[in-house]
């Protein structure tokens, strides 16, 4: 983790730029879209800096990079959500969660973690249901199922009780949980009631989530290379 820290400096700077400028959401523009997406662009560079061969030979890392690309497109759409692009952003992030789930893999299965995430996801949707109408009744259900599944695959990987966790898996797990907090805050603020400091909560947890998930992809390289040498 320490060796990767300096490579994340551009991401931290770009994130600071976003929060310092704090451009108003009431007047969307390509500049505000650029500022919002800039930290994610930095995470692209962070992964690409480890080499194309690394991304090609490590499918989990390449899928996380693809997820970051779809995330940036989703971020851009959400800049213009009041102009009717909210569903477009929702679709982009749904694809992101599918890619992240694929990167995290299906082993170990951990059905208990799956049941827990299923209960959490079902409870969230049950709460939101009465506030939803039209296509969002179904779209939000599918989206919650996808992010819940992604959360399950991230949580299943840590195996704390069996002492089989690694930093890469813990990073993915925390990142997935923060992503869920960010998206739940969006849902509450969009469909239910105004959430105090919603924008700050959404973006702080979102950027932290994406950084941790990107970092987990890089540590996967070190973990797999160690196994090969052994």
Automatic annotation (TrEMBL):
Q: Which keywords describe this protein according to UniProt?
A: Membrane, Transmembrane, Transmembrane helix
How does the record classify its membrane topology? Multi-pass membrane protein
Q: What is its main location?
A: membrane
Cell compartment(s), UniProt: Membrane
A matching Pfam family: YhhN
Record-listed E.C. numbers: 3.3.2.2
Identify the GO cellular component terms for this protein.
membrane
Fetch the InterPro entries from UniProt.
TMEM86B-like
Report TM segments.
30-49, 61-80, 86-106, 113-132, 138-155, 167-188, 200-218
Q: Which reaction does it catalyse?
A: a 1-O-(1Z-alkenyl)-sn-glycero-3-phosphocholine + H2O = a 2,3-saturated aldehyde + sn-glycerol 3-phosphocholine; a 1-O-(1Z-alkenyl)-sn-glycero-3-phosphoethanolamine + H2O = a 2,3-saturated aldehyde + sn-glycero-3-phosphoethanolamine
**UniProt GO MF annotations:** alkenylglycerophosphocholine hydrolase activity
The family this protein is said to belong to = Belongs to the TMEM86 family.
Q: What is this protein called?
A: lysoplasmalogenase
């Amino acid at each position: 983790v320490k060796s990767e820290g300096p490579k994340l400096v551009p991401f931290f700077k770009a994130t600071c730029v976003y929060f310092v400028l704090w451009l108003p959401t009431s007047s969307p523009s390509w500049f505000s879209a650029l500022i919002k997406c800039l930290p994610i662009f930095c995470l692209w560079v962070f992964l690409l800096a480890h080499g194309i061969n690394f991304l090609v030979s490590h499918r989990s890392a390449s899928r996380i990079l693809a997820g970051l690309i779809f995330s940036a497109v989703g971020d851009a759409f959400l800049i213009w959500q009041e102009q009717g692009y909210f569903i477009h952003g929702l679709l982009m992030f749904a694809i992101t969660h599918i890619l992240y789930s694929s990167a995290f893999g299906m082993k170990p299965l951990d059905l208990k973690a799956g049941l827990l995430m299923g209960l959490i996801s079902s409870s969230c949707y049950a709460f939101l249901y009465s506030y939803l109408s039209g296509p969002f009744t179904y779209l939000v259900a599918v989206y919650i199922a996808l992010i819940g599944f992604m959360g399950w695959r991230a949580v299943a990987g840590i195996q704390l009780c069996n002492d089989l966790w690694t930093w890469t898996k813990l990073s993915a797990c925390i990142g997935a949980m923060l992503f869920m907090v960010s998206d739940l805050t969006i849902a509450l603020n969009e469909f239910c009631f105004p959430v105090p400091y919603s924008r700050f909560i959404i973006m702080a947890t979102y950027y932290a989530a994406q950084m941790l998930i990107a970092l987990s992809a890089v540590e996967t390289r070190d973990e797999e290379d160690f196994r090969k040498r052994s």
